[in-house]
Write a structure and sequence with these properties.
402 residues; mainly alpha; two-stranded antiparallel ribbon; globular; transmembrane helix; Ammonium_transpt_CS; transport; ammonia transport; Ammonium transporter
């Protein structure tokens, strides 16, 4: 009997390790989506830079999170022996891998906002600092219960802040950090002539669409495998993810008037919004959540570019920052039993938790990017910006006709 119990335990541990490993690989693959979404959106002379940034940011984010960020969030380090680290089939190591792919999404989000005019090395240093300190501070607050914030919310409002897969922890935080960086950088040269917006057309719609599809597919690992153990897997999360994606597609197609850029970002807006409550909502609630997000993205992207003159190249603040906020609030609405959800949430906790994430992200991002700007400068010279980041920084163009 003891041998049977031991075998079952080993099988369970190995199955959980494989489960979360597959999730980590799917989220890792999403970084290719970030890359091609940016490559397709920026002008041709900045395509190489987009690819290099996503890969470089991932590498430096992994180091920052391995040595500092994971310790800040979970009070865990990796200085034990390999024998200790590999206990339970190395589940804790793979859990780090999974969560690190989330952390590395923050610089990937920021990259799309600051495209075409940011220096390379200073921004890389800033991204590492964000992943080492700013992001894990809020991550630990929410997902590890640090500093008693969640306990206070539960005691005061009857439920802790609920963010199953990171609408606020990952996306809103990334989007609001990006807004700080975008504001400090300023607009691209030639983007506005007086009050008139000058269109900078996407360089490659097929690449943009490819990026959106890679992200969309990977999102099912992002959401479903946030359960982190095999016994926690839920078909409800999968179908809610699907329905929110569909809501985002339909809304962005209608509100965006068939624009391919809006259409391919619409499902991403829906997916950002459903992360928080994907384990609680009824699928119809998820559909509505995604539809609102898709419409919100189109409206806010247009508003920020035309009226506010915020030169957020990929619209990462509307997409991740605002739709992520909406997702945090939507979990407190459509997660309620009265609206078909599973319950166990409080709208007030969702509101306060969301506001906390926005404040920490924007203030933290402003401090980091201001410090780097004052010491090293984060804006390319006017000549380098005119020539494009590909030749100015990497000394090679994306394609050659030779």
């Amino acid at each position: 009997m003891e041998n049977i119990s031991s075998a079952i335990q080993t099988l369970t541990e190995s199955a959980n390790t494989l489960f979360i490993l597959m999730g980590a690989i799917m989220v890792l693959a999403m970084h290719a989506g970030f890359a091609f979404l940016e490559v397709g959106t920026v002008r041709h002379r900045n395509q190489v830079n987009a690819l290099v940034k996503i890969m470089s940011d991932f590498g430096f984010s992994a180091l920052a999170y391995f040595f500092i960020g994971y310790w800040v969030a979970y009070d865990t380090t990796f200085f034990s022996s390999a024998e200790t680290l590999s206990a339970n089939n190395g589940y804790e190591l793979v859990k780090f891998f999974f969560l690190m792919t989330f952390a590395a999404a923050i610089p990937a989000i920021i990259s799309g906002g600051v495209a075409e005019r940011a220096k390379f090395t200073p921004m890389l240093i800033a991204a590492a600092a964000i992943v080492a300190f700013v992001y894990p501070f809020f991550e630990g607050l929410i997902w590890n219960g640090n500093f008693g914030f969640q306990d206070w919310l539960e005691a005061t409002f009857g439920a802790a802040f609920h963010d199953f897969a990171g609408s606020v922890v990952v996306h809103a935080v990334g989007g609001w950090i990006a807004l700080a960086a975008v504001l400090i950088l300023g607009v691209r040269k030639g983007r506005y002539r007086g009050e008139r917006l000058i269109a900078f057309a996407p360089s490659n719609i097929p690449f943009l669409a490819l990026g959106a599809w890679i992200l969309t597919i990977g999102w099912f690992g992002f959401n479903v495998m946030s359960a982190q153990t095999l016994d926690g897997i839920s078909g409800l999360v999968a179908v809610n993810t699907l329905m929110a994606m569909v809501g985002g597609i339909v809304a962005s197609l209608i509100v965006g008037k068939n624009d391919p850029g809006f259409l391919h970002n619409g499902p991403l807006a829906g997916l950002v919004a459903v992360c928080a409550g994907s384990d609680l909502m009824h699928p119809i609630g998820a559909l509505f959540t995604g539809g609102v997000a898709g419409a919100l993205f189109v409206w806010l992207f247009t508003l920020t570019q035309n009226r506010f003159k915020i030169d957020d190249v990929l619209g990462v603040w509307p997409l991740h920052g605002v739709c992520g906020m909406w997702g945090g609030l939507a979990a407190g609405i459509f997660g309620l039993e009265a609206l078909g959800g599973l319950g166990g949430v409080s709208f007030m906790s969702q509101l306060i938790g969301t506001i906390a994430g926005v404040v920490i992200a924007f203030v933290g991002g402003w401090i980091v990017y201001t410090a780097v700007d004052k010491t090293a400068g984060i804006r390319m010279t006017e000549e380098d910006e005119y020539n494009g980041a590909d030749l100015a920084i990497h000394k090679i163009a994306a394609t050659s006709e030779d």
